[in-house]
Amino acid sequence: MSLHPETSAITAGRPDAAPDTPLNPPIVLSSTYHAGGPVGYGRYGNESWSALEVAISELEGGKTLSFSSGMAAVSAVFSILPIGAPVVASNQGYSGVMGLLNQLHSMGRLEVRFVEITNTDEVIAAMKGAALVWLESPTNPCLDVADLQTLITAAKKLGIGVAVDNTFATPLVQKPLAMGADIVMHSVTKFLAGHSDVVLGSLSTNDEALYKRLEESRRLNGSIPGPFEAWLAVRGIRSFPIRFRAAESNAKDLAVRLSNHSKITKVRYPGFGAVISFEVDGTADDAQKVCESSRLITHATSLGGIESLWERRRRWAGESPSVPEQLIRLSVGCEHVDDLWSDIQLALTVL
Ligand SMILES: Cc1ncc(COP(=O)(O)O)c(C=O)c1O
């Protein structure tokens, strides 16, 4: 029976039902297993990871591998590419991925072609002879949206691998595997786990051979999640659809209110999801002061948690210089929208 995500988030990854067996998957704290079974060793498998992997697979499709962080998952994808392989990627995506790609390019490990992801023709032109297209849509933090379906179809026609970072949109908005992508990646740290208490990542794929190569990469590089973190993420996924929809509803409302505020010069909101980026009428210092003046919204990096956070992205040296200095990224949580708006209005009075 094919279930709606609201249902499968609640039912997936539970142990088989039998009298007195627990409803929830256990936290399996063991590096060592009795010989003769399919797991063998604590770096090769763990029941707590399996529960998380089943739950993400139910949402995204395919078969899932969990990793110690989103960046560990990203690194696993790049690790299986041949030396010097051409990779097409957004010139304005998550700074960690861009930093990693720049490093791999300067080492000669990969040949990275950075493109304007909203320019579909430019991206398709850059695909010629590439091994992989790395897509992030919407992008972090500028919330640019790529024409995913056109790009995936074009890449597949050329026989190029496609990986999509689906952290911001989540499977409630788009399902890249169903669109033909080879891999979908998550920073599980964000919306899926949703409580700002774990750092985790995942990769899902429909391709069994690719799954095996990525699993081998995880096994050999040791980029495995902790069982407790995996368990917390499963617990978070139970309420992910409800949290995401509540936060999205708040974000839609706040995007309109921000657009009508006299101290805001630009609002970036793709019309879905729970992250808004906006520019204040002022300098970098002014934007910084706004972020430091909130009482309810936490001044911190990260996103996708049940609580609202904001920060000026250019406070990080690694952020792309094309991101405006006065841009604030707001991760909208599940608080009451009027309380969030009062806090934003109050913080903006420093301008
Ligand atoms: C879009 C995106 N992808 C990947 C990552 C990396 O994930 P992690 O911090 O879990 O390693 C992040 C982290 O902020 C992100 O925002």
Description:
- With 351 residues, the chain is an alpha/beta fold.
- It folds into 2 domains: 5-238, Type I PLP-dependent aspartate aminotransferase-like (Major domain) (Aspartate Aminotransferase, domain 2), CATH 3.40.640; 241-348, Aspartate Aminotransferase, domain 1 (Alpha-Beta Complex), CATH 3.90.1150.10.
- 36% of the residues lie in helices and 17% in strands.
- The chain has 11 helices and 12 strands.
- The strands form 2 sheets. The chain has a 7-stranded mixed β-sheet with strand order 1-7-6-5-4-2-3, sandwiched between helices. Strands 8-9-12-11-10 form a 5-stranded mixed β-sheet, covered by helices on one side.
- α1 (5-11) packs antiparallel against α2 (47-60), α2 packs parallel to α8 (227-238) and α3 packs across α7 (208-221).
- The longest helix is centred in the last third of the chain and has 20 residues, at 240-259.
- The mean pLDDT is 98.
- Residues 69-71, 94, 96-97, 136, 140, 165, 167-168, 187, 189, 199, 201 line the site of pyridoxal-5'-phosphate.
- Its cofactor is pyridoxal 5'-phosphate.
- Belongs to the trans-sulfuration enzymes family.
- One of its GO terms (molecular function) is pyridoxal phosphate binding.
- Keywords: Pyridoxal phosphate.
- Residues 1-25 are annotated as: Disordered.
